[in-house]
Fold this sequence. Notes:
The structure is a single chain. The chain has 225 residues and is mainly alpha-helical. Helices cover 51% and strands 5% of the residues. The protein contains six helices and five strands, in the order H-H-H-H-H-E-H-E-E-E-E. The N and C termini lie far apart (71 Å).
Amino acid sequence: HDCLSDLGRLGAIQFTDLNPDLTPFQRRYVSYVKRCDELERKLRFFHAEIDKFELDITSAGNVDAFLSSPGLLDGSGESSKASGAQLLKTLEAELGGYESQLRELNSFSEKLTIEYNEKVELQEVLEKARRFFLADGARLGARSGAPTTVASTVTDLLSADTMGNRPDLDMRFASITGVVATDERQRFERMVFRATRGNCYTRFAPIDQPITDPESGNLVEKSVF
């Protein structure tokens, strides 16, 4: 085994496939290939997280230097004499622990970012909507104070008798406020215009500070409507 391992590191060995008819999934070493692919996926995940936060990393050197690093196997420092199965098992346990910790931290960070964004958006909505209502207060007050009567000889199909005296179906909204992405302003305005058949006036006020997207981490410009 040691002889084959040394020849493999030198790259001076070649195996002849005695079972060329077998598919890759029928070979005995396919489980080890899958485990190596899973390790590679975890390393790609770590690399993507490092690039996202723009962190500086130190290279571990070549493969032999990494495998001979002290403490790779239970602090014994004798990883060069260990078998490939032991190294694979150790790397799986170590990288699996790092991945679970990093994903847990990401979930906590995403949750905190969402909660912070909700508080910032709520504050901006209250401030911007207050300005809207102060500017339009007199007009809205005059409109609400004027009684409206509509005479009709046609029987109402949704009268109080047929609706079962349900006051919740008589709700009317004079104003609705919220937050929308600045890039979606025109699309949102067209959607509201079509939904209300043109019986709506939309106003926007941009939010001064950009909002962090919890999924991508990018800054997004948003506006209060």
